[in-house]
Model the fold of this input.
Amino acid sequence: MDEKLAFLTICGMGAVTYLPRLLPMLFLSGRTLSPWITRWLNFVPTTVLAALLAPGLLCHEGKLTLNPDNFFLFAAIPTFFVAWRFKSFFGTVATGMGLVALGRYFF
Amino acid sequence: MPTKEKRCSDAVERFSAEKKNLRFWNGVRQALPVVLGYIPVGFAYGVLAQKSGLGLFNAVAMSVIVFAGSAQLIGAGLFGAAASPFTLIFTTFVVNLRHLLMSAALAPKLKGWKKWQIAFFGYELTDETFALHTMRMAKRTPPKIETFAVNITAQLSWVISSLFGYLAGGQLADVRPVGLDFALPAMFIALLVPQIIKPVYLMMALLSAGISVTLYLLGFSQSHVITATIVAATIGVGVEQWMKNSPS
Done:
């Protein structure tokens, strides 16, 4: 693909990304939503984050990976604990990265 | 010689300018965990974009125009595989459709915002900025300038790290030994845990994770997130209602 067509394609990719980001907040921000919708939306942060996270921890190259070589899964357990116990954003990320680095260094 | 009123209004102006400055830097500081996660992923995207044959301008333009981690990684792969513009645009649409739900979830927090402010805010809505704003806006209404500072810092770090990734290109040192590739999963954990405020939320997080993994393994690797989110949130409302109605 030549660079000009590639740029136009990227603009198209930008447009289809931007509209779903923009339209709901543009149309819903001024309205009072029904309690049912509000309750449904209250679940979204939890369910979307769990759905984003889980395949990264449990799968590797398209396969379920529950064996000891899966450092991500083992690092995740103490990382969850730190997030829950200490409520520190930075501490949680540092713990996770540190454990993965250590695991790779020693095994 | 300035009058007393003039001196006074000057002082007020100085004070409010200082306050704005402070709020801005406060936002920059709050974005740092996201920046930490974006550096390795943006870098990885840059390397991949360089290998896929995209030019420097287009590779960085994608980070400015699209600004979406997973979609850009997939996009760079598709450019490398000489996919058609339609395939690229349609795949990006499907992969990023989940933002629809995040945008709706944040909408009630933006009451009274001007249209252009919402337009600017929505442009930089990603998984990570969404989670961060959900946390920031849960209990209070942070100043808008702080909110925009978070977004601008996040995207700037994304654009700069993709540029560096592109320039590093072939001579990339592996980021895996320092565990940088775990930055994003760790960040999702840090953002997910504070959301779980009731047992029913924990149940739905597990359900959503299960659905997401199942669909992913079945090959629906572009729609697994949005499907799991919708199904689990819907069941969650039902379970919550059922628990309320049943005497305990």
